[in-house]
Design brief:
Layout lengths: L1 H7 L5 H12 L10 E7 L7 H20 L4 E7 L15 H5 L19 H15 L5 E4 H6 L4 H9 L1 H8 L5 H4 L5 E3 L14 E3 L4 E5 L5 E5 L5 E3 L1 H12 L3 E5 L6 H10 L6 E5 L2 E2 L16 H5 L4 H9 L6 E2 L5 H14 L5 H6 L1 H5 L13 H11 L4 H11 L9 H18 L10 H16 L6 H14 L5 H13 L7 H8 L1 H13 L1
Parallel strand pairs: 1-2, 1-9, 2-3, 9-10, 11-12
Antiparallel strand pairs: 4-8, 5-6, 6-7
Helix pairs in contact: 2-3, 3-13, 7-10, 8-11, 10-11, 13-14, 17-19, 20-21, 20-24, 21-23
Length: 522
């Protein structure tokens, strides 16, 4: 343990870098509350999505890294902003006419259109908890409605009323002039309609802890800021929550980064200490546009899990979080293969390299042994070459290459085989086109076919790769990459592919020659 801690204290792995900031935060004395608090936030206006997974997974990585270098206990809370008003009706829910009558009410005051829970907010909260539980995240769920209505936020709300002018002084310069005229950090809940109101304050009495505003029926109403009568605007709410809970660490997307100073200033103005932040870059779709839940571009968690395990998604989330990354179907095979490469490397690494290995952070220092003697990319190439219809077709090739492997002894491989067949049919086959070889390629492929047919039986991938290489040299390809690219495009219908000798070993010499014959006949 001491050896790991020593390695972690100098590791350049980003979770350890963030964890060391928290160690420094409490270098003089441990937190009075007795633990370091990590927080993630969630807006329950819709179903959890891949960004939710990424935020909780990455926060958990920092939490585990901190626990490796500190003895201070930790907590992770997932805070649901379920008192927000329902501003629009989601596209993917039933009974939209009923929901339309409840627009702008707090989500926990809107009836559940699915008829399963006592409110739409609680329905979405349940979906969030089920989502997080599926991946085994350790967290505590916190409802904003509960905190507002049971008085847990009362002290900070009373302080906000007392320091209203100071808080408004922080917020107003960030707003357009027109918005400044009607803005208030407080959003009252209308006692007549139950809706969240965006109205100016006629009076804020810091001594009594009340606000006065014009209700929707035109009457002036005075309400206490406590007891769930009022909520805070979302930017002040962010900083107030940090102050109320004494949050130590929270990460959020780059789209929040311009508000960081506001969040921090609100927190400090309310007597809190701003937490350590981590801003991550947003994901892009296949065309380079930002992934949007409402636009439906990019990948969903379910789509990723249809082709690969959750650990590969965690691996993708671990990689360079401060760099914008394309997140589309074609990143999945690479993520799966790199994840297993890191698993295989882990046992032979020293403690410093293990601490920098992504699988340490994915599995809290105890990664499993890889059960993938064949890469996922190779399985896809096999499926593409064979036009695989089911798992058994691929297992026929695998048994020749790894006779001791079976679905029973290698369950992870078996799952990957099924995923490869699905991926081939869903993502490769619809756009697959094999071009005809040109004259030079035809001559080279005919030569390759003859050399393979006359090669000694039992050659391994390296020996077969040498034959492929020698053919390319003999036919004077100026750049051997063009030779291999031609093999991929003509035989497999793709511009990139595996180490071709390894493919021949796994697919079979006779089967490879059959592909060449088919290409030459075209």
């Amino acid at each position: 343990m001491t050896e790991l801690r020593d390695a972690a204290l100098v590791s350049k792995a980003w979770p350890f870098e963030e964890a060391r900031k928290l160690v420094k935060r409490y270098a003089k004395a441990p937190p009075e509350k007795g633990y370091v608090l990590f927080e993630t936030g969630y807006g329950p206006s819709g179903l959890p999505h891949i960004g939710t997974f990424g935020e909780v997974a990455r926060t958990t990585m920092v939490r585990r890294a901190f626990e490796a270098i500190s003895d201070i206990p930790t907590r992770l809370i997932c805070f649901s902003d379920d008192m927000d008003g329902m501003r629009k009706i989601p596209d993917n829910v039933p009974d939209t006419e009923m929901l339309a009558t409840h627009l702008h009410k707090p989500l926990t005051a809107v009836p559940d259109p699915f008829g399963e829970f006592d409110s739409f907010g609680n329905h979405n909260n349940a979906m969030l908890r089920r989502f997080l539980d599926t991946f085994g995240f350790e967290y505590e769920f916190v409802s904003a409605t509960d905190y507002y209505k049971t008085g847990k936020l009362d002290p900070i709300l009373l302080r906000a009323a007392e320091r209203y002018e100071k808080l408004m002084g922080i917020m107003l310069p960030s707003l357009r002039e027109e918005r400044q005229q009607t803005y208030s950090i407080f959003l009252p809940i209308s006692p007549t309609t139950g809706r969240v109101l965006y109205v100016p304050m006629k009076d804020v009495n810091g001594k009594d802890g009340t606000i006065t505003f014009e209700d929707e029926d035109g009457t002036d109403v005075t309400l206490p800021v406590t007891g769930g009568n009022v909520k805070l605007q979302w930017k002040p709410d962010f900083g107030a929550r940090w102050a109320a809970l004494d949050v130590d660490f929270e990460m959020y997307g780059k789209d929040h980064s311009t508000n960081t100073k506001l969040y921090d200033s609100i927190c400090r103005a309310l007597g809190g200490r701003a937490p350590e932040h981590f801003t991550y870059e947003l994901f892009l779709d296949d065309k380079g546009a930002k992934i949007s839940k409402s636009a439906g571009n990019g990948l969903s968690v379910d789509e990723w899990l249809a082709y690969a395990p959750a650990e590969s998604l965690s691996y993708f989330m671990y990689q360079k979080p401060k760099t914008a990354k394309r997140m589309f179907f074609d990143v999945i095979p690479k993520a799966v293969d790199e994840y297993h490469q890191q698993l295989r490397a882990f046992p032979d690494q020293d403690i410093a390299k293990q601490a920098a290995n992504p699988v340490w952070h994915i599995h809290n220092g105890k990664p499993p042994v890889s059960d993938m003697p064949i890469s996922f990319s190779m399985l896809l190439n096999l499926a593409s070459a064979a036009g695989a219809e089911d798992k058994e077709q691929l297992w026929g090739f695998i048994r020749k290459y790894a006779p001791d492997a079976s679905a029973e002894t290698h369950p992870v491989l078996d799952a990957a085989v099924g995923s490869a067949v699905r991926y081939f049919h869903d993502q490769i086959l619809p756009g697959k086109t094999r071009r005809a070889p040109d004259e030079k390629e035809s001559a080279a492929m005919a030569d390759l076919r003859n050399r393979l047919a006359n090669a000694p039986s039992g050659l391994d991938g390296e020996g077969l790769q040498t034959i492929v290489y020698e053919v390319g040299m003999a036919h004077e390809f100026e750049n051997l990459r063009d030779w291999f690219k031609g093999l991929y495009e003509v035989l497999l219908g793709q511009s990139q592919g595996p180490r071709f000798g390894n493919f021949i070993e796994l697919y079979g010499v006779a089967e490879t020659n059959a592909l060449i014959d088919e290409a030459l006949a075209s």
